[in-house]
Specification:
By secondary structure, this protein is of the alpha+beta class. It contains six helices and twelve strands.
Length: 289
């Protein structure tokens, strides 16, 4: 498996233009977290170290092809005394597949508060998926062997009766990462796309849907390490018209809220092709049309 450092390592082609390499994957489309993480790496690379990224907002415009490189074009929107902004377009085959704005801020002093981390079992009290054959052999855990992902069973986590859908997940990168805060931030951007949309399926077990990330927003609130346990507290407050809204709060082991995420995703019901569509599909595949 390719490590996260290699995935996030971009080639600097020229000023404000970067390229991500192709890495082995079983996925038919480029993983959204990879595009978001690499986009953030490219944006960070154009900002002075005195500024720290505090938010990103992105839209997934087209499915990415994992078999070809992605080029990242950075636009320096603003460089101010306290804030600076970058816009990044991720391009494949001349078309933008993802666009993102990232905001950076110098450290200031202000008011402080946060929600309390929910009470859940410790990650050590939950099984490692790689030790459970049925889970270890699934496509999800095969694709992300480098990640230790442990979903908290619903019966072991207090749920609020007024929430439509929720789940909680412990996550961490399995190998120790260097002491570079920006690497951990970009790694979390990659990680944040995992499991979140699945929250919308919690009340709809067994319902087959076509799913894809549509947009993604993150706020980085406090320092953290991606190679230490993080609790991803996820909810889906609404789903309808083929889309689902999901949101997550990410806590470190000490209960500090380190990030927040909001994502809308496609959750369209899978449709059985009618006989006319099936006939056309067969004809197109055989080249008779």
């Amino acid at each position: 498996m390719v490590g996260i450092e290699e995935i996030l390592a971009l080639e600097h082609l020229e000023k404000d233009i970067f390229r991500g390499a192709v890495h082995p994957t079983a996925l038919q489309r480029t993983f959204g977290g990879q595009v978001a993480g690499q986009s953030l790496v490219s944006a960070v690379s154009t900002v002075d170290e005195s500024y720290h990224v505090h938010s990103l907002h992105g839209y997934f415009l087209r499915p990415g092809n994992p078999k070809i490189p992605t080029v990242y074009l950075v636009d320096r929107i603003r460089d101010g005394r306290s804030f600076c902004t970058r816009r990044v377009n991720a391009v494949q085959d001349g078309k933008t597949i993802f666009t993102m704005s990232a905001s950076f801020h110098v450290d200031d002093e202000g008011i402080e508060h946060q929600d309390r981390m929910p009470s859940v079992p410790a990650p050590e009290d939950l099984p490692d998926a790689q030790t459970v054959p049925k889970l270890a052999e699934s496509q999800f855990y095969q694709e992300w062997k480098n990640w230790d992902i442990r979903i908290v069973p619903a019966e072991q986590s207090a749920s609020a009766p007024d929430l439509a859908a929720q789940q909680r997940v412990w996550m961490r990168y399995r190998e120790a990462l260097p002491d570079r805060p920006l690497l951990h931030i970009c790694t979390l951007a990659y990680l944040s796309d995992m499991t979140l949309l699945g929250t919308s399926k919690v009340p709809h077990r067994g319902v087959k849907t076509q799913t894809a990330s549509l947009d993604h927003a993150m706020w980085f609130l406090r320092p953290f390490r991606a190679d230490e346990w993080l609790l991803y507290d996820q909810t889906s407050p609404s789903a309808g018209f083929g889309r689902a809204l999901t949101q997550g709060r990410i806590y470190d082991r000490d209960g500090n809220m380190v990030a927040a995420v909001v994502q809308e995703g496609l959750t369209r019901l899978e449709r059985e092709p009618d006989s006319h569509e099936s006939k056309n599909s067969r004809e197109n595949k055989t080249g008779t049309v």
